[in-house]
Amino acid sequence: MSDRFFSLTRPALDRLVVVAVLATALMTAAQAQPASAPAGGIASICPKGVVAGSRCVSGRDSAGAFYWLVVPANWNGTLVVHAHGGPEFGRLRVKRPVEDLQRWSIWTRAGFAYAGTGYHQTGVAVASAAQDIERVRRVFVAAFGAPSRTILHGNSWGASVAAKAAELFGDGSGNDGKPPYDGVLLTSGVLGGAPKSYDFRLDLRVVYEVVCGNHPLPGELQYPLWQGLPLDIKMTRPELAARVNECTGVDLKPEARSASQQRNLETVTRVIRIPERTLISHLEWATRGLQDIVFTRLGGRNPFGNEGVRYVGSADDDALNASVARYRADPAAQAAFAVDADLQGRIAVPVLTLHAIDDPTAFVELESTFRDTMTRGGSADRLVQVFSDDHEHSYLADAEYVAVMRSLLAWVERGEKPTPQGVASRCGGLEATFHPATGCRFHPDYRPPPLASRVPPRLQVGLTE
Questions:
Q1: Taking a C-beta distance cutoff of 8 angstroms, is the pair 191, 366 a contact?
Q2: Which residues of 299-431 form beta strands (DSSP E)?
Q3: Is CB count within 10 Å lower at the N or C end of the chain?
Q4: Residue 18's pLDDT band (cuts 50, 70, 90)
Q5: What are the chain's domains?
Q6: DSSP per residue over 104-162, as a string?
């Protein structure tokens, strides 16, 4: 991007961004009509973990997404449509929806029907995945008939997919005027929108490169780190992990690390504020994830910047900040990315979120951003957020999930809006039935701080200084 681009006046840049947003919005709207659902699917043997006596159907929908549908013998009449996290990169995997069904077998064990899709494309394609979610709901209705209630559940990155689906299809268009979803449950959600949910991964790349200098190595092609990885360069997770371990010894016991490895590990994790155990996974996402966003979604344009960001937590913050690479985002790329991945906060049905306070992958501060989004969209009164003293991301506790689901249904069916204390009390009554060893760890009084308290805010791009 030339310097001349950034010398444009604010009105000119505003017009450019508006044009980009409108063009992408038109394309997204045109794509947001789910393909017709196929008539059938194949009656299948239910995977391990699904409650005994269930009826299972698997298949591939009209767009090519693999799916699984389950109706338990003790079905309570409510369908849970599940949006899985990730996203995955590379080829579609037929096993992905099976793995999700097994991980979330709590829904069938608690008497709910289940519909899950593997999505018809990989990568960071939020609106596309939202279409797949609506499509699998229609597949279920075609196979088993309309449920009495339908709850849309999204976990991790899938929470943003579920929220997007609720915004795109929640008005009942094409469904005889009836909203297809009665409520939305979002757990461990990546709910900051674009690019806020992903900015810290650029921060990780630039700080890691100053500390370790091996991704890329000095003798390798030097590329802007916001690219993640150039398309013509291949790197597997084990190859990346080997580099990270060489520099930080993250997979070694502390006593087996060298002094320099321990120092490097502490610097990176303290500045970026991530636990050691997630360093490699975050770096993989900051490699393959950014690569997908930049090249697959945005045609090589850059939606990420770190101008004005001050990194703190190292032994010498002044030296660190003088050394990190600095990038300015392309405002048109940011606008295009936002059309796909941003949320508007316009959800017409009750929304309940659950997030671990010490989530090592999707920071709990993202919930603060989502609350602000729902407020701006006029949906604040339809949002309740609850938090637990858990330290995991992908899965918390059976009793906690059943508690939030039943609390959401009480809100939907009887107008009983949940309170954090009420959800915690409900969970206590479920511990004896659903994995009592995992317990209930709700923290009713917790309120998440702003995302900017954890991820340094960016300068606004596109303005003449």
A1: yes
A2: 351-356, 383-388
A3: C
A4: very low
A5: 42-193+343-452 (3.40.50.1820), 199-338 (no CATH)
A6: TTHHHHTT-EEEEE--SS-SS-HHHHHHHHHHHHHHHHHHH---SEEEEEEETHHHHHH
Residue whose structure tokens are 């999505």 = 119
Q: Which residues contact 353 (CB under 8 A, 6 or more apart)?
A: 159, 185, 186, 187, 189, 191, 367, 370, 383, 384, 385, 386
Give burial (CB, 10 Å; 0-12/13-18/19+) of 4: exposed
Long-range Cβ contact pairs of 48-52 (< 8 A, separation 24 or more): 48/102, 49/101, 49/102, 49/105, 50/101, 50/102, 50/105, 50/108, 51/105, 51/108, 51/109
Digit-coded pLDDT (tens) for 69-95: 999 999 999 999 999 998 888 888 889
Instruction: Rounding to the nearest 10 degrees, give the CA dihedral for residues 145, 147, 151, 154.
Output: -30
CB 162 within 8 A of CB 352: no
Distances (CA, A) of 166 to 112, 197, 314, 362, 380: 20, 19, 42, 21, 15
Which two structure tokens, joined as six digits, stand for 373? 């989004």
Give the pTM: 0.89
Q: Which two tokens stand for residue 372?
A: 């602000």
Please say whether the beta carbons of 354 and 388 come within 8 A.
Answer: yes
The residue type at 154: G
**Among 119, 282, 75, residue whose Cα is nearest residue 190:** 282
Using the Cα atoms of residue 100, residue 158, residue 87 and residue 242 in order, give the sign of their dihedral: negative
Task: Tell me the mean pLDDT in the region 120-136.
Answer: 94
3-state DSSP assignment of residue 354: strand
Cβ atoms of 293 and 303 closer than 8 Å: yes
